[in-house]
Amino acid sequence: MRLDPSTERAVQFAARTGDGPLAEGLARHERGSADGPTSGLRSFAREWQPWFPAIDRAAALVRTAASAPPERRGRCLDRALDTTIAGTTDRLAAFVGEVRAPVSALYAFGVLLPLALIALLPAAAASGVPISAGVVAALYLGVLPGGLVVASGWLLSRRPVAFAPPSIDGEHPAVPKRGAYATAAGAVTGTVAAALAAQFVAGWAAPVSALGIGVGTALFIVVRPRRSVLSRVRSVERGLPDAMTVIGGDVAEGVAVETAIANAGERLDDATGEVFDLAGRRSDTLRVGVREAFLGRGGPAAPVPSPRVRGAIALLAVAAREGRPAGDVLLELADQLEELRELEGDARRQLATVTGTLTNTAAVFAPLVGGATVALATGIDTVGAGGMGAGATAGADAFGVGGSDVAGGVEASSDGVGAGSTGALSVPVLGRIVGAYVLVLATLLTALATGLERGFDRTLVAYRIGIALPTATATYLVAFVGAGLLL
Fold first, then answer.
1. What is the average pLDDT across 188-194?
2. CB 343 within 8 A of CB 89
3. How far apart are CA 125 and CA 222, in angstroms?
4. Which end of the chain is more exposed for a tag (fewer CB within 10 A), N or C?
């Protein structure tokens, strides 16, 4: 709009260079109004207005700028951008306030209350109340995880600020095919972890350790190359405002865009400078245009799936055609990219106050409480087996360990069910149920925290789950052993 004040051409440019549901919706409205006198921007704004009220006003300002005198056009466009950023900031602040109560409720009913109920099971067993393993398993491995999934999906669907993460799949050239290797590594580490857990913790801990550490290791190995690509994409995006500032200043002074790109590559020492330096060399060597230099076959920006980078390249291609007047536009783009980066950082900081507790709970708090709870049940088992009172003995019978061989505070029953207590909740069964629930919490809470903080970036979600699962498993087993030594 600053280079060519035509709403129709600006809408067409945005729809063609954009990526995601907004660009698709804009392209649909642009095609629908191709035979009419309008650009489709008004109908597009009306479609998205229920989800983002500020878009209606911003679109009206853009349409006003098309017919405004040149001296007032820039002010209208600046206000359109300010309206969008202010609306985004307001929506974010409102969401942070609204999400605190649901997250607190999820934390209370999905973590605190279930773990507190688990802690009551040994006391209930000590009082002679029979406890069914099937009921506990259905509650902690079916009902509670299902409720957490529904609540997490509802919270993520209401997140108003989700900057589109880069789409990194297995077809990316920097992502090797590591499925077989990851599976083998997960199987080996899971087997070793199970053997160590059975030897130094308890027999029932072997499957929990194998599942948590094996799956976590395999997931980490599979996702790590994608995480490296994501880190490079973020590095290129961070330096994009500086690159646009350098190029915009040169173009405003009459330097050709191709030369300005090469100059930016020489002046910047970060990942962005490397991309622009290679693009400048390709343009000079192959005598190709800006878009081909960046995104052509073997281009330095081709393996960088970033909407911001591709949008900046599209505007650079326009600037190469327009010449010197595009310099100020590129400087405006640099300011806009910097504002977006600050807005995204502010969003993460505000949401981190909500998600920090979920992340810590997933990896540390829940496994710590769960391990101590199972150790408490084992302590009751030991007291009951030692014959210290009818209540304790009844508790041991209720846990199905009346005939178990107990040594050092860690039960060693082969099947976990004592004589005459078929269907009762034994300590080994309790340990496996609590361990599985701890792993479920590590997966769901980590995914929820990452999704709320950064949008549902599949690469980052999988990467953090790959770290959380082994951490939660180790914490759970260490807490069990440590609490057992104190009881």
1. 95
2. yes
3. 43
4. C
- Taking the CA atoms of the chain, what radius of gyration do you get in angstroms? 29
- Lookup: tokens for 417: 């069910």
CA–CA distance, 118 with 141 (Å, rounded to integer): 13
- Amino acid identity for residue 200 in this structure: F
Task: Find residue 62's DSSP bridge partners.
Answer: none
CA distance 151 to 441: 13
Query: What does the chain come to in residues?
Result: 487
- HSE of 144 in the Cβ direction (CA atoms, 13 Å)? 29
Judge contact between 277 and 256, C-beta under 8 A.
Answer: no
Which residue is associated with the tokens 């479609």? 47
CB 62 within 8 Å of CB 80? yes
What is the tens place of the pLDDT at every residue in 342-368? 888 887 887 887 788 888 888 899 899
Q: Enter the pTM of the model.
A: 0.81
Query: Where does residue 423 fall: left (phi above 0), alpha (psi -120 to 50 degrees), or beta otherwise?
Result: left
**Can you tell me the distance from the alpha carbon of 112 to that of 12, in angstroms, rounded to the nearest whole number?**
52
Phi–psi pair at 288, nearest 5 degrees: -115, 165
Domain ranges of the chain: 7-67, 98-234+340-389+428-486
Residue 160 — φ and ψ, nearest 5°?
-85, -20
Torsion sign (Cα): 328, 330, 335, 339: positive
Q: Tell me the backbone φ, ψ of residue 204, rounded to 5 degrees.
A: -70, -20
- Write the pLDDT tens digit of every residue in 450-475: 888 877 778 889 999 999 999 999 99
Can you say how many angstroms the Cα of residue 7 is from the centroid of all Cα atoms in its chain? Answer: 36
Amino acid at 379: G
pLDDT digits (tens, 9 = 90+) for 87-114: 888 888 888 888 888 888 888 888 888 8
CA 479 to CA 431: how far, in whole Å? Answer: 12
